[in-house]
Every structure is written in C-alpha cells, then in structure tokens.
Amino acid sequence: MLGSLEILDTEPEESFDGLTELAAAVCDAPMALIGFVDADRVWIKSGHGVGLSDVAREMSFCGIAVEDGALVEIADTHADARFAGHPMVTGAPHLRFGAAMPIVTADGHRIGAVCVLDRRPRALTDAQRRYLRTLARQVLALLELRSRANEPDSELARQQQRMLSGVLDHPDVLVFAKDVDGRFVMANRALQDVTNAGRSLIGGTDFDFFEKDIAEHYRRNDRQIMTTRERQVFSEEVVHPDGSVHIYRSTKFPLTDEAGEVSGVGGVSTDVTELAAARAAHAAAEERWRALVEQSQDPVVVVDTEGRIAYVNPAGVALLGVASAEDVALVSAMDFVPERIRSVTQALLDETLSTTGIVRSQRGVLRRHDGTELLVEFNATVVKHSGERSVQLEVRDVSEAVAAHAALKHSASTDPLTGVLNRSAWDAQVTPLLASVSEASPLTVAVIDLDNFKGYNDTRGHTAGDLLLQQFAGAAGASIRQQDIFARWGGEEFILALPGTDPQRAQTMLNRIRACVPFGQTCSIGYTGHRPGDTLTETVVRADKALYEAKSRGRDQLARR
C-alpha cells in the first residue's frame, strides 16, 4: 500500500512541513514529525525540531503506533521498559515523552504516524489528542491528493483548499500570517471570530483591531521574529467578544519565500483556558488530598458486558498504573488480571452480570500496567452505566495490609536477634507431634547451651556476644533437616526437636551441631527421647538435666538421659 503512494524518499514539501509545525504548536512540543513505516525503517517525510531522515522501525514511536493501530503515548520513557535504554533517550535529544497517532487508510492499512516528542515527562490533553487525530487524517488526505495529481489543476487546488480549510477552521486554534508590513494575509475563521473582525481582518493590521499599546507590542514582536528568524512560544490573555478572558499558548515563527528571504510572520495560538483551569484545580485538589489523605476514595472500575473497561476513576487510574483513563478506555479488564486466574475471574464477572448478584469482600490479584501484581479486595455490583448493563468494581489494594499481617505473625514467632523460632513458636510446632510418637516414629529433644558465654560476653562486649549467637544460630539451622525444629530457648540456650530420630541416631546429628559454634567457642548438649505419655515439659526437663551432666564433664560434651 505504501509503495503505491510513491511517498518514500521524496523531497520535502511545504504542505507536510506545515502540518508538523502545527502538530508541535498545538501539542506544546519542541519536536514533531510525520513518519512512514517501511519494512525495516521509519522514513521521516517532515520533521520539526528533528534532524533525522529515518530511524529503525524497531522500537520507534511510529513503529509501535502502526503495530497497535491506536494512539501510543509514553508519558515517561525512563519508566517504560521499551524505551528506557533507547539511544535517543539515553543520549541526544534525551527524549522523555513521545506520542504517535497512526495514519490509517480507508481500507485499514496503517502506513505511518504523526509524532510529537518532548524532553520532559508529560501527558497530552484530550484536546491535543483530538488535534493529533485530525492531523493524521489530514496527512492521509494530502497523500490521496498526491496520488491523484493527474487530475485537472483547478480541481486539485480546490481539494487542497478544502483540506487546508478543514485544518485551519478548528474552533480552538487561531492561525494567521502577516506580511513584512504587518498586514494580515491569512486568518482562519476562529481568529476572525475572536477579533470580531470577520473577513475584514484580511488586509488590516493589528492597529486596526487592537488597542494602540497592544498593537505596538505585537508589531515589535513581529519585527524581532523576522530579524532573528527564530520562533517564539509564549502565553497570553485574549478577551473574547463576549468579555470572557481566555488563555492562549501561542507560537510565532518567520515565513520565508522560495529564495529564503523573510516574507512575513506566521502564528498558531491554542486556547488552553481549560487546561490552565484544570491545572489550577489539580493543584487545589492536591492540597485537599494532603489534608484528607486518610479519607481518599477507593478506586472504582466499571466493566461492560463485553468485559471492557467503560469507566475508571482517578484512584483507579493510579491503581492500574496507567497515565490516564483514556489509556484503558474499552480495554479488556482481563488485561489487568494475571493469566493464571483469568478464567476464574471471568466466570465470577459473568455470574455477577447474569444473576444481578452482589459480591462483597472478594480477594483477588490485579496485574498493573507495568506487570507488577497487587493483592486486592473488591466489591462487585451490577449497575447501569451510560444506559448499559455493567459491573461496578470497588477495589482496594490490601497488599501492604496482608504483608504487614504476615510480618507481624512472623515477628510473633521469631527470635528478633537470631531469626530462628522463639520459645512459644517451638512449643506450638512440637506439641502436635507428641501424639504420633512411637517406637517406629521416635522424637528426640536436645537442649544446647553455649559454654562460658557470660565470660565471653563480659570480656568482648555485648555486640560480640550477639554476633556469636547469630552466627551459631545460622550455622546450626543450616546443618539440620527440613523437618527438624530449632529455636532459641533463652539467653545462650537453644532447643532442637528431631522428629523420626531416636537418641542413638541423634548423637551424630548433635555432634554436627557442636561443630557449628564459631570464634573458637564450644557448646554442651543434653538430649533425650520423648516417652509416650509424658508431657512436653517433662521431656524438656529431662533434656535439661542431661545438659547439666554434659557441663559437669568439662563442657563441649554430649549427655543423654
């Protein structure tokens, strides 16, 4: 399809250059381009602020837009795995933002894209996304006109004029051109309406339509642009005929003739009043949020009968990890569910829709846009959204709460210094084993005491003593089996349960434990077999008595009772 348009590797054309400059202006971006995607490259037909002729198709904004068939908007390249290491991100021009709107033919072929680029992370406004879509259509219209170049010149000119009018007469954008004397030679309908001058604007100067001081300011600015040949970008307030004050972001640039001589000044002004108000509202909301953070609303996601996301509130946008609600509009809700549980989640969603049921406090897993997973709790209710039957999900991230509960449970059963089980946790794990103890399934309990620990602690200090306990606990824990139960009993004493091990076999294992004491220190161990009918306390007392027997033999000994 692209070959039939005969556009690749052609000379620059003002009609395309005008559209890229307009794209940069309306999107408040320093760089814009029109790129056509070939088999392995993106050929740049027109670039504004970009000095490239082509780039590799792989990992280009245009290439991804052509693949996806929809607007691609990367809010921050540093946070996007596809672009974080890209040469144009890590090096000049140090891109942090990019957006690309695909150029799609009437029969569905995706042939290229209109791109805007920036050196700062950001997001497009809804209006700017509409402008990009309009500009992509105008690029396609230009291509179609080129392919019909054999038509009579007059008809071609009329079609070009209609196309240009479609671009220029957008109600939110003011477009004009002045000659070197400051006379308006072109002004779109929006500018004619704002100045309340109508078609009389053409041929007039700023002095005919504005107060003298304003007109003089405009004229000085025009002369500066023509002299320096540099574009200027600024914000200004414009009073509309109804008396309302609007904020415009304006771009003015020099116009040149075929000989390269300056022939006037052009300008594009975009009404950013709503954007400015939104930014102010956002700042105010941010202050309220700081004061009311504990009362923030839970994320809400509405899913239609096709399983697509029909609505997501700002809290939901943050939970899903996307830049804006538009990024997930009509996207399958299952895209945010791990594949391993999609069938179960889809069944629950279908059942809720079919039965008008209500789901309360259901646990699930959410997969965010970046691939990370969160444990969530949600309520689901059937609602009418935009007149359509849908499921409203109220979602709450409980990952931190669950992790905190697990950490609390762990700390309640763990000795904080050594990281092994504490006394109560050891009791809780060993007690259930007593009922199954028999001759065929014995249980040995050993009490371990580090020899002369008090002297070591007093001589070398508590820090050295703590380190000795930690090193021993780590080495001993690594030397036992998975089913063995090891804990710190208190002070320098530890306790060990060896399920399925009689005292005779336990001796070999306990000698390994003795070898685990670091820093040239030793330990004594007393051990015994559990007797059916005895309590756990009785068994531990017997092992403790064996320990004292070991110590009485000169320490670094084993003793059994």
UniProtKB/TrEMBL annotation:
CDD domains: GGDEF, PAS
Superkingdom of the organism of origin: Bacteria
Domain PAS: 285-356
Record domain PAC: where: 232-284
Biological process annotations from GO: regulation of DNA-templated transcription
Signal peptide stretch: none
Domain GGDEF, chain residue ranges per copy: 441-561
NCBIfam families with a match to the protein in the record: GGDEF, sensory_box
Protein name (Swiss-Prot/TrEMBL): Diguanylate cyclase
Native source species: Mycolicibacterium parafortuitum
